[in-house]
């Protein structure tokens, strides 16, 4: 039976593409390895696979021997991992409680992407990377590092991406923009689905609120349906029995957020960010993180 190489549940581009790259590497080393996935692929990953004409890996089921990529916490692994023997772990996350009965091969490094480690393993062992695999590993790096903008991105990621782009025959920036745009657009989504994205409930002092966040490459595309979004936000607020609904429309590339405001008290938002809410919207340059740049400010304003 084959060795399955698999990433985490709710797979992102790194989890899928590193699995494909790592399976390719294992095969080159003489092992019967196949890539697998632990869930449905997202729009961004589909774009990468279509672009480089690579098949979607099979959904994992009753694997006997596995190599884990891009995760190591048992809670993030595919259902049934407890029945499988883990042979190796290739990852760039903190270690989170994995126990094994036998020693395993581990390559965990503090870089921005698992694909950076996979590419490095190929180069170290003189395994030639074909164009389509290079393209997928590149896609993973561009995705995980958000075009090198993420604080987790390292020089190793950048260098690997440049080399992989040359092998894949794509212009790095141009391809990266197209890739992220394919994943971060609202194409095919209803206003209600946009307003529901990553919705969390909070209490700011005595104000009950919901704060959703959608991260996109082109915020204008979202703001174009603002009136419908505000209606959907009001409906969500009523359903969740809160008075205030906020929607962060976060611009990945320009590192800013258009914060849409529905319900009351709107002046809590004005106090939190020292800006006027105009047409149910506040523009917040530099704001990307709900946890660090929205919730504490709202909490303080409510004191
Ligand atoms: Mn990753």
In short:
It is built from twelve helices and eleven strands.
Jot down its keywords.
five-stranded mixed β-sheet, 2 domains, 303 residues, alpha/beta, inorganic pyrophosphatase (n-terminal core), Diaminopimelate Epimerase, Chain A, domain 1, binds manganese (II) ion, six-stranded parallel β-sheet, 12 helices
How is this structure best described in words?
With 303 residues, this protein is α/β, with parallel strands linked by helices. The chain folds into two domains: 3-183, inorganic pyrophosphatase (n-terminal core) (Alpha-Beta Complex); 191-301, DHHA2 domain (Diaminopimelate Epimerase, Chain A, domain 1, Roll), CATH 3.10.310. It is 40% helix and 21% strand. The strands form two sheets. The chain has a six-stranded parallel β-sheet. Strand 7 and strand 8 (207-216) form a beta hairpin. Helix 2 packs across helix 6. The longest helix has 16 residues, at 13-28. The termini are far apart. 42% of the residues are buried. The model has no long low-confidence stretch (mean pLDDT 94). Manganese (II) ion binds next to loops.
């Amino acid at each position: 039976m084959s060795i399955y190489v698999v990433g985490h549940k709710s797979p992102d581009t790194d989890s899928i593409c590193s699995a494909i790259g790592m399976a390719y590497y294992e095969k080159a080393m003489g092992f019967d390895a196949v890539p697998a996935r632990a869930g449905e692929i997202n729009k961004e990953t589909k774009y990468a696979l279509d672009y480089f004409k690579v098949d979607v890996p099979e959904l994992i089921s009753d694997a006997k021997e596995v190599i884990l990529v891009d995760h190591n916490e048992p809670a993030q692994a595919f259902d049934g991992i407890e029945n499988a023997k883990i042979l190796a772990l290739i990852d760039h996350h903190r270690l989170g409680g994995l126990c094994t009965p036998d020693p395993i091969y581990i390559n965990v490094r503090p870089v921005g992407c698992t694909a950076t480690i996979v590419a490095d393993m190929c180069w170290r062992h003189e395994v030639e990377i074909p164009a389509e695999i290079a393209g997928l590993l590149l896609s993973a790096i561009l995705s995980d590092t958000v075009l090198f903008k993420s604080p987790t991105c390292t020089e190793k990621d950048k260098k690997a991406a440049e080399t992989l782009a040359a092998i894949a025959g794509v212009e790095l920036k141009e391809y990266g923009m197209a890739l992220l745009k394919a994943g971060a657009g609202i194409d095919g989504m209803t206003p209600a689905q946009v307003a529901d994205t990553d919705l969390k409930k909070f209490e700011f002092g005595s104000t009950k609120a919901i704060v959703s966040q959608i991260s996109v490459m082109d915020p204008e595309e979202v703001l174009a349906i603002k009136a419908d979004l505000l209606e959907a936000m009001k409906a969500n607020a009523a359903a969740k029995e809160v008075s205030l609904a906020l929607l962060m429309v976060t611009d990945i590339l320009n590192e800013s957020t258009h914060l849409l405001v529905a319900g009351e008290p709107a002046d809590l938002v004005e106090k939190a960010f020292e800006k006027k809410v105009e047409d149910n919207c506040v523009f917040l340059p530099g704001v990307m993180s709900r946890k660090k740049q929205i919730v504490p400010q709202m909490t303080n304003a409510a004191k």
